Amino acid sequence: MTFLEETLGFIDPPVKQNESIKKHTTIGVGGLAKYFATPKSLYALRLLIESAKAHKLKHFILGKGSNVLFNDGGYNGLVISTERLQEVSVYNGKVKAMCGATLNKVIDFAKSRSLSGLEKLYGIPASIGGAITMNAGAFGATISDVVSCVETIKNGKLCKYYKSDCRFGYRKSRFINSKEVIVSATFDFINQAKELIEAQIKCQKDLRKTMHPMGKSFGSVFKNPNCQKLTAGQIIDRAGLKGYRIGGAMVSSEHANFIVNVKNATAKDILNLIYEIKERVYKTFNIELKEEVIIVGGFHDFNC
Predict the structure, then answer these.
(1) DSSP assignment of 259-298, as one string?
(2) Which domain holds residue 278?
(3) CA-CA distance, 17 to 14, in Å (whole number)?
(4) Which residues does 107 contact at the CB level (< 8 Å), separation at least 6?
(5) Which listed residue (51, 144, 151, 171) is catalytic?
(6) Is 5 a catalytic residue?
(7) Are residues 60 and 298 in contact, defined by beta-carbon separation less than 8 angstroms?
(8) Are residues 109 and 193 in the same domain?
(9) Is the pLDDT at 106 greater than 50, yes or no?
(10) Which pLDDT band, with edges at 50, 70 and 90, does 1 fall under?
(11) Residue 279 catalytic?
(12) Beta strands in the chain (DSSP E)
């Protein structure tokens, strides 16, 4: 029995073939995924992963696609999107969100119940699964500040990790490069007047409008270097790279830690621009920038 034949019994909608990845990433690049699935339940998610393993088919879990770069040649395996796993609920003041729920959805849900804690992350185009994995943050706050526990699928079984077990750090957690798949997270929010929460969200929206460029991008490309007073964006700016362009990819003229797809950029354009930024910054300041962006397959697969 083939992989597609096996999945017909439990996947609705059926697994797609040769799906364009660029439609599912915020930067809007990438080739075709050999297989693409959007499970609607944890049961289906688990069976998809197990079926892929049984057929020796590599797989990649995709949330909002805001920090990943896929090869122009596509992905010769199964891409599993969590976009249908979006349930958010509350019990005894704790908010539980499935991995595919967006940060904005969780923050708005909490606001509707006068619960506060993640407003500074409003506007980050990430799913809960991706945000937990990268310990997403903005304006001095991180998602780990309010995490209570995280549930994953590991070797076909459901596992639970409390915050102290998650090894959160700056843009990292135990789940980076792990074979586990995050399926949900539970948060400890605090009670707050709804009007104050709304004011904080409005403040974040206004800040993002003034600081972050519009259009197709990853969000931040590089981590802020350790032991540096300047941010990655400020360092790239001082290296004279604002507006620098390779093909259809350009360093934003508004925020230098953003690469924007200005004209049908390819993944190769973007990767070459990442290389150029890193090389220029290292030669100018002897600072090695590290990517926040996950390059699927690794640099060597792009043949730049």
Answers:
(1) EEE-SS--HHHHHHHHHHHHHHHHHHH-----BSSEETT-
(2) 232-302
(3) 10
(4) 118, 119, 121, 122, 201
(5) 171
(6) no
(7) no
(8) yes
(9) yes
(10) confident
(11) no
(12) 16-20, 32-37, 59-62, 68-69, 75-81, 88-91, 94-98, 115-116, 137-138, 141-142, 147-154, 157-162, 181-188, 190-191, 245-246, 249-251, 259-261, 294-295
What is the total count of domains within the chain?
Answer: 3
Q: How far apart are CA 23 and CA 290, in angstroms?
A: 26
User: Is residue 76, in this structure, part of any structural domain at all?
Assistant: yes
Phi, psi of 138, deg, nearest 5: -165, 145
| Residue keyed to tokens 């944890």 | 42
pTM recorded for the entire structure:
0.91
Query: Is the Cβ–Cβ distance between 77 and 17 less than 8 Å?
Result: no
Distance (Å) of CA 23 to CA 14, 19, 59, 160, 294:
18, 9, 18, 32, 17
**175, 132 contact by CB (below 8 A):** yes
Tokens representing 130 are 């991706």
In a domain, 227, yes or no: no
**Distance from chain centroid for Cα 155:** 23
Q: Of 184, 220, 252, 291, which residue is the catalytic one?
A: 220
Q: Which residues have a Cβ under 8 Å from the Cβ of 214 and sit 6 or more positions away?
A: none
220 found inside a domain: no
- HSE at residue 61, side-chain half, CA atoms within 13 A, is 27
Q: Smallest Cα–Cα separation from 162: which of 176, 170, 151, 173?
A: 151
- 190-191 and 157-162 beta bridge pairing: unpaired
Shared-domain flag, residues 206 and 92:
yes
The amino acid that residue 83 corresponds to is: E
Q: Is 292 a catalytic residue?
A: yes
Q: Are strands 249-251 and 259-261 parallel, antiparallel or unpaired?
A: antiparallel
What's the CATH code of the domain at 43?
3.30.43.10
Contact 247, 288 (CB under 8 A): no
The mean pLDDT value for 96-108 works out to 97
Confidence of residue 304 (pLDDT cuts 50, 70, 90): very low
